[in-house]
Amino acid sequence: MISRSTPLGIVGVGRMGANMARRLKECGFTLAAIHDTRPDAARALAQELGAQASPTLADVTERARIILTVVSDDRAMRAIFAPRGDSLLRGARGRTFINCATITPAVHLEIERLARRAGARTLEACMASSIPQARQGTLALMCGGERATFRALLPLLKALSPAPRWIGSAGRAAQVKALVNMVMNINTAGLAEGLALGEALGLDLDLLREVFSQTGANSRVLETDGAAMQHRAHECYFSAAHAAKDSSIALVLGRQKGLRLPLAAATARQYARMKRAGLGELDKSGIAELTFRGRGGRGLKRSRD
């Protein structure tokens, strides 16, 4: 069972990883090593939290017993667990990796096999929340891997989430996370189109959002993104680029099972359009820039991102 004195490592200190590190420090856990592909970001956070900025991945593994990884995609995940060169797998015997990135289920399985071969354990801990929840310890965590590993890590997981769930074997949590984001992204695209049409019809959007909230048009996305779409306040909590990636993961899973997912496919195309238009670093609510008349990102203030 993990204790608060167990040395922890964090790899990937972007918006989510940095705030998870702050939360764990605040809860009394021992942060021993911090690494990022941007050395300045790692040094700044390490100085803030009284940790060591590790210049290499192997140094993280040497200093820490439990290592959380919060990277961007399959390619980044494979890079930090590379079988050769600088890698978290060097000297990994006895270590446990908690992998929090939204990546394809197959890559979680691949990393589990590599870690096991190196004498280490893994747990996928997929997050269905955003930056404020990472800082407050209210993440929705869906975990996959060996149940015994999940149970051993519960004190740490409960510092990040009020109710971490064990979904099943490796890859299962990633499947659930892909479906969560697929449905969320579809809802977001649908809300953007509804509000854009309301605006084009000359309706009062404050009134329209209120009516939506009291009818079958209601959704969590309406609560989190409706006003942002209306007022073009696309401060980034979950980027359009990540929405595009996550929608694609779900589409691949659908194809593997012989399913057609036309709504997911249309949504993925919309977020891909955002990336091509240079809007990929806006929040997912920025999809409204593609639907409201006269927008397309023109005149949009990006300083809040």
SSE layout and pairings?
Blueprint: E1 7-11, H1 15-26, E2 30-35, H2 39-49, E3 52-53, H3 57-63, E4 66-69, H4 74-80, E5 96-99, H5 105-117, E6 121-127, H6 131-136, E7 141-145, H7 147-152, H8 154-160, E8 165-168, H9 172-200, H10 205-213, H11 220-231, H12 240-256, H13 262-276
Parallel strand pairs: 1-2, 1-4, 2-3, 4-5, 5-6, 7-8
Antiparallel strand pairs: 6-7
Helix pairs in contact: 9-11, 9-12, 9-13, 10-11, 12-13
Describe this structure in words.
The protein has 305 residues and is an alpha/beta fold. It contains 13 helices and eight strands. The protein has helices spanning 15-26, 39-49, 57-63, 74-80, 105-117, 131-136, 147-152, 154-160, 172-200, 205-213, 220-231, 240-256, 262-276, and strands at residues 7-11, 30-35, 52-53, 66-69, 96-99, 121-127, 141-145, 165-168.
Number of domains: 2
Helix count from the secondary structure assignment: 13
* H/E topology pattern: EHEHEHEHEHEHEHHEHHHHH
Q: Give the class from helix and strand content and strand pairing.
A: alpha/beta
Fill in the keyword field for this structure.
Rossmann fold; N-(1-d-carboxylethyl)-l-norvaline Dehydrogenase, domain 2; 305 residues; 8 strands; 2 domains; eight-stranded mixed sheet; alpha/beta; 12% strand
How would you summarize this macromolecular structure in one to three sentences?
It contains 13 helices and eight strands.
